[in-house]
C-alpha cells in the first residue's frame, strides 16, 4: 500500500519519473528524460480531460432534449415545433397532459344524447372557429389565407380541431334526427363530408395509446379495458389561445379585399 501511494501523481503536484533514483544516477540525460516524460504525461492527461468534457457535454445535450420531449414531467411543454412539419401559430399554446378516456356507456357524459344542455355543452367546445392572426404569422402558413378588411394587417384563421368538433357534433345530431328534424344543415352530403373529415383526422393524428385486455370477475371473461390513459394536448390551453384570437366583427364573405400576401410555394 505504501509503494502504491508513493507512485500516485496528483494533477497539482510536481511530476517525477517512475524511478527517480535511476534518473539521478544517469545525470543530465536522466533529467532530460524526466522532462520528456513530464510533457508526455501532461499531454496525455489533457487529452483525457478533453474527452471527458466532450462526453459530459453530449450527455447533457441528450438529457435536455429528452426532457424537452416530455419524458420527465407531466404536464409538459414539448419542443417549439411539437414534432410538426408545418407551422401553426398555436404551437406556443401546446402542452401535453395524461388523460384517461371514459367509455360513455354506464355513465353518460354531457356530450351524449340530445337536449338543450347537450347542445350548449357542444357549442362551448368550438365557439371560436374563426380567428385572426397578424400578417407576420399568416406569411408562415403553408396555405394562403384572406385579409380582414376592418382590421388591416390581420388575416382569417382557424384551428382544425374546432372544425372537427363541429363535424362530430353534426354526426351526433344526425343520430337523433327526430329531435333535430327541423335542422336544415343535416343533409346526407353534409354528414358524409363530416364522417370523412373525421376519418382523415383520426388517421392523421394516429393515436398510438395502447389498448389492453383484462380479466373481468363480473363477466367471467377477458374484456377490453376502455379507460386507458392517453397522451393528450391540453385542449383548454388551445381553447384559451383561440379565445384570445377570436374575431368579434362579422365578416362579409362576398366582399373582395386587395392583398399582397404571397402564395406559399410548398402547398397551394
Automatic annotation (TrEMBL):
Region (Disordered): 1-31
Entry keyword set: Membrane, Transmembrane, Transmembrane helix
Pfam families linked: UstYa
An example Gene Ontology biological process: mycotoxin biosynthetic process
Annotated pathway: Mycotoxin biosynthesis
The keyword Transmembrane is assigned to this record: yes
Domain of life, per lineage: Eukaryota
Transmembrane stretches, start-end: 48-65
InterPro entries per UniProt: UstYa-like
Similarity comment: family membership: Belongs to the ustYa family.
Protein name: Tat pathway signal sequence
Species of provenance: Laccaria amethystina LaAM-08-1
Lineage of the species this protein comes from: Eukaryota, Fungi, Dikarya, Basidiomycota, Agaricomycotina
